[in-house]
Design brief:
- Helices cover 31% and strands 15% of the residues.
- A 9-stranded mixed sheet has the order 3-4-5-6-9-10-11-12-13, with helices on one face. Strands 1-2 form a two-stranded parallel sheet.
- Helix 5 runs parallel beside helix 6.
- It binds S-adenosyl-L-homocysteine (SAH) and iron/sulfur cluster.
- The site of S-adenosyl-L-homocysteine has 18 residues, from strand 10 and strand 12.
Length: 410
């Protein structure tokens, strides 16, 4: 799986305290003053057209047409929009764009996994910010791993993204733009349910999606819209490290499948490896899972569990995991992720025998616990892999950053 993918972004250090709360953001202007329509709702497109001087009734009709061209047909230029009067194309093109994030680099693995290094439009400092997405083809499905932030405010000890500061939240346009780029590259326009390669989306790239709630919700609404990208909510999974106060809203307002990065079953170990646990503990988290709207036996909650040697991988841990899942009567499946090491990481991956033993204990209790096969290793597309040495930091620097992030969590 692609999660927590590594990039070498043009990291702009944010001075001082970074408060990990969701911050709604305006879609940034292009440097040339044009505004991107990608990521806007029908209503927002209409409002933009009106604000640019289009008469109200016409704006309503054009918004509907533009929506269809952008999200259903994948148009990348206004001149291809045949039912919009030709004379109006330059008017639109002078004011708006339908651009996706810029592709800095695209790579294909020997196992078919594809990875893109993407860049946001430049911000006021003139710099764009790099982030990644990964596409993992399988026999019966194709999964796109999408990023929600550049960097992360959290600091899970085994995750390379956790060693980065939060540069900024991605906008709805940058989130939905990832899916559109993947469709461009797979040649899968117009949106149609049959025979497509891109069948599933996981919000498991860089960042914590529930700390960028509004943008993720708005982007996924476009992805799920039948006249938009038309992907069913059953085929979308949002992964959280455990932002308990946002979980109910996620179920109600987004309604996709939930994955929870559990990774440990005792307070001591989870406090260490997933520090948000010091704020929202295991019991609170599992209660929020039990209350998650829409979870049932047909739509199980996935518990992600990264296998760290001698840290969280004993038979006793496996039995405790089963006990907890039963205690909260959770419709659950467990994904065992072999740890992907990166230079500077303080952990090692568990041995294959240990992972198998852990998996069979959970399986024997009647809970599915497959071991994930790392994909795209030759292009560093798997979890937690360091892309370049540019991001190397000393242990002292990493510790300092960890302390800062912990302080921000309160
Ligand atoms: N912030 C969200 C989603 C992105 S991380 C979250 O934490 O759930 C997606 C998954 O990749 C998480 O389960 C994360 O714990 C896992 N992951 C991160 N680094 C990893 C590594 N080095 N090896 C294996 N899994 C890793
Ligand atoms: Fe990595 Fe933790 Fe942030 Fe997820 S929440 S991206 S695992 S640091």
């Amino acid at each position: 799986m692609c999660a927590a993918m590594q990039t070498a972004p043009n990291l702009m250090p944010i001075p001082g305290h970074v408060d990990p709360v969701p911050v709604p953001r305006e879609a940034p202007m292009q440097t040339d003053g044009r505004k991107s329509l990608v990521g806007l709702t029908r209503e927002q497109i209409r409002a933009e057209l009106e604000a640019a001087g289009m008469e109200s009734k016409q704006a309503k009709l054009r918004a509907k047409q533009l929506w269809h061209w952008i999200y259903n047909r994948g148009a990348t230029a206004f001149e291809t929009m045949t039912d919009i009067a030709k004379a109006q194309h330059p008017w639109l093109a002078e004011r708006f764009t339908v651009e996706r994030p810029q592709v800095v680099e695209a790579q294909v693995s020997t196992d078919g996994t594809r990875k893109w290094l993407l860049r946001t439009a430049p911000d006021s400092s003139g710099a764009g910010h790099d982030f990644e997405m990964v596409f993992i083809p399988d026999a019966d499905r194709g999964t796109l791993c999408v990023s929600s932030q550049v960097g992360c405010t959290l600091n899970c000890r085994f995750c390379h993204t956790g060693t980065m500061r939060l540069v900024r939240n991605l906008t709805p346009g940058e989130i939905v733009g990832q899916v559109m780029l993947a469709r461009d590259s797979l040649g899968e326009w117009p949106s149609q349910p049959e025979g497509r390669m891109l069948t599933n989306i996981v919000m498991m790239g860089m960042g914590e999606p529930l700390y960028n709630f509004d943008a993720v919700r708005d982007a996924l609404a476009i992805v799920m819209d039948g006249d938009g990208l038309a992907l069913s909510k059953r085929r979308i999974t949002l992964s959280t490290s455990g932002v308990v106060p946002m979980m109910e809203r996620a179920g109600k307002e987004i309604g996709v499948n939930l994955a929870v990065s559990l990774h440990a079953v005792t307070k001591e170990v989870r406090d260490e490896i997933v520090p948000i646990n010091r704020k929202y503990g295991i019991d609170e988290l599992l209660q929020a899972c039990a209350d998650y709207p829409g979870a049932n036996n047909a739509r199980r909650i996935t518990f992600e569990y990264v296998m760290l040697r001698d840290k969280n991988d004993s038979d006793e841990d496996a039995r405790e995991l089963v006990r907890l899942i039963r205690k909260y009567k959770l419709p659950a499946k467990v994904n065992l992720i072999p740890f992907n090491p990166w230079p500077g990481a303080v952990y090692e991956c568990s041995t294959p025998e240990r992972i198998r033993s852990f998996s069979s204990i959970v399986f024997e209790a009647g809970i599915s616990a497959p071991i994930r096969t790392p994909r795209g290793r030759d292009i560093d597309a798997a979890c937690g892999q360091l892309k370049t040495s540019a991001e190397k930091r000393s242990r002292a620097e990493l510790d300092r950053l960890a302390e800062e992030k912990q302080a921000a969590l309160g």
